[in-house]
Write a structure and sequence with these properties.
By secondary structure, this protein is of the alpha/beta class. It has 11 helices and 8 strands. It has a single domain (about 10-270, about 295-300), classed as NAD(P)-binding Rossmann-like Domain (Rossmann fold), CATH 3.40.50. It has helices at about 20-30, 50-60, 75-90, 110-140, 160-165, 170-190, 205-210, 215-225, 230-240, 280-290, 300; strands spanning about 10-15, 35, 65, 95, 155, 195-205, 255, 260-265. It is globular and about 65 Å long.
Length: about 300
């Protein structure tokens, strides 16, 4: 076994099933102690089942432990971080993977559903990052493990829906787009402490993928393909970014689909035009129009065959 993460401690949200479980297993196999933060809720965020995380922790053994309370509050997130430190002596890796879905067209969306999705998908990662980075900064000051610490890894699981959009996914897409922005700010804020923060957009068969209701043939093709893609390659990329090699990679947005790894662009100016007066705006916009992005969903954009 190649224990590249021996002595490191990881906290993974949504770690009891799907991609989260694959990430937990990959980090554990690499030698890390892992706290599995998963309250066992449904994909819509209803109910709870603590046995989901507890069973996995028991199967993995003494280097694994379960946190079965929701971390979507500042106090609960801090308690999860404090638990990791108390149980395993520190915290080196945070993976924000947990997410829920409550889809509806914007003209039918329920404000309560909007708030619930953002609370789980965006607020909880912020609360955990706020608590974890305080620990990581202190560990850097006191050279955890001896010598210059130069460590600390944060990986946020996002979605291509956050920048392509998708029908009926206002809350989900907004939360994931927000998480990309949070990734960038965290990378900037933690650069002096040598803590790396990156985002990964996964493509794999999960409960989220299974819940997709295709709106056209292209989306059906996407779902059919996605349900054949294993979660382990996503976990392998996260484990790579969580290791020594990830020290110099920060603020980046990756995608992984089977054996394909993507570096995804982040919004930057692609063209400019000058309008000296309001009357010239029409001409300026016309000059920009060849660069307009096509209105397509992420399901349509990635309906081609993956490399498995």
């Amino acid at each position: 076994m190649n224990e590249t993460l021996k002595g490191r401690v990881a906290l993974v949200t949504g770690g009891g099933r799907g991609i989260g479980r694959a990430i937990v297993e990959a980090l554990h196999q690499a030698g890390a102690a892992v706290v599995i933060a998963d309250n066992g809720t449904t994909i819509a965020g209803a109910g709870a089942d603590p046995t989901v995380a507890e069973a996995l922790a028991k199967a993995l053994g003494e280097r694994a432990a379960a946190v079965t309370e929701s971390v979507a509050s500042p106090s609960a997130a801090k308690a999860a971080v404090d638990f990791a430190v108390a149980r395993f002596g520190g915290l080196d890796i945070l993976v924000n993977n947990a997410a829920i879905l409550r889809d509806a067209f914007v003209f039918k969306a329920d404000p309560g559903d909007w708030e619930a999705v953002l609370r789980t998908n965006l607020f909880a990662p912020f609360y955990l990052i706020a608590a974890a980075t305080a620990v990581l900064r202190d560990q850097a000051k006191f050279s955890r493990g001896g010598g210059a610490y130069g460590w600390g890894r944060i990986v946020n699981l996002v979605s291509t829906a956050g920048f392509y959009g998708n029908y009926g996914q206002a809350a989900y897409a907004a939360s994931k787009a927000g998480l990309v922005g949070l990734t960038r700010v965290t990378a900037l804020d933690m650069a002096r402490s040598r803590v790396a923060c990156n985002a990964v957009a996964p493509f794999a068969a999960t409960r989220v993928t299974e819940s997709i209701t295709p709106q056209n043939p292209a989306q059906q093709a996407y779902k059919d393909t996605a349900m054949r893609i294993p979660a382990r390659p996503v976990a392998d990329l996260v484990a790579y970014l969580a290791g020594d090699a990830g020290a110099k990679i920060t603020g980046q947005l990756f995608g992984v689909r089977g054996r394909e790894v993507f570096l995804l662009s982040q919004p930057r100016p692609v063209a400019s035009a000058v309008a000296e007066t309001p009357a010239e705006l029409g001409a300026a916009i016309a000059a920009l129009s060849p660069h307009f992005l096509r209105l397509e969903t992420d399901l349509e954009a990635f309906a081609n065959q993956p490399v498995l």
